[in-house]
Structure of Fructose-1,6-bisphosphatase class 1:
Amino acid sequence: MPDDTNEAAGEPDSVVDAVFDAVAATAPAIRDALPGRRVESDDENPSGETVLAGDMYADELLGEALTAVDGVGAYVSEERPDATDAGEGYSVAVDPLDGSSNLRSNNAMGTVVGVYEGSLPATGHDLVAAGYTLLGPITTMVVADESGVREEVVTRAASGDVTRTVVDDDLTLPDEPTVYGFGGRVPDWTDAFREYAREVEDELKLRYGGSMVGDVNQVVTYGGVFAYPALTDAPDGKLRLSFEANPIAYVIERMGGASSDGTGSILDVDPDGLHDRVPLYVGNETLIDRLETALDE
Ligand code: P6P
């Protein structure tokens, strides 16, 4: 379980709530803007990836909304090299449009959020809350904090007012795993991971859609395991610790699941840089234990 000594136990954190109010408020506007922003921009992000117009728009919108929240001291984005100063308070790390490569194929994507106490880079134990929006057939938001994990439906009225409706106030990982989703190309998997994957493929159903938030939400809903593993040509995998792996690991561990970088909890990883990548494995505890044993052989 994440370290919640940073939290005054029991009292909901009004700044965290304001952060997720801001994230929810931008979700419908991001969704509305996507049809006209499926093209690639000329820019690259700090991870060297081509930035879609949708990524840039989401980053601008979220940057503006989150730096305006009292109690947010820094906005840190996958799309920006450095933190954007916002005064005093939490550092809010964001992947503005995770899975934006799904924009052309019209598949799920969303925003990943980590609320850290103190400056970044930091370990996941500095998280006080984390979550993600999912722009699927409906817009949902999963929010994890010291009180637990909840799923909300985000709707916008004709008036423009955005509403967050809690549809599950105690989201826990299903005991019985059902689905798996493994990223990267099979030829690029290590022998140890490939062997583990072959076992899991015989036990569970494949659910992989190329967007971490969509694929993790399958595991959140049906139980199982998601991985973007270490690859033979990318031993640190693809996903960024601060913006993707830590927030997702925090959510899954808060739900009673487990996370790993291949050797131990993602939340223990101590990064050198803001955009460090890390292999990510999350899901039911037994499947993560088996994964760590398989990679240790
Ligand atoms: P691949 C999306 O680009 C992303 O960052 C994650 O959302 C997703 O899990 C992964 O990359 C997909 O990568 O190599 O399968 O296209």
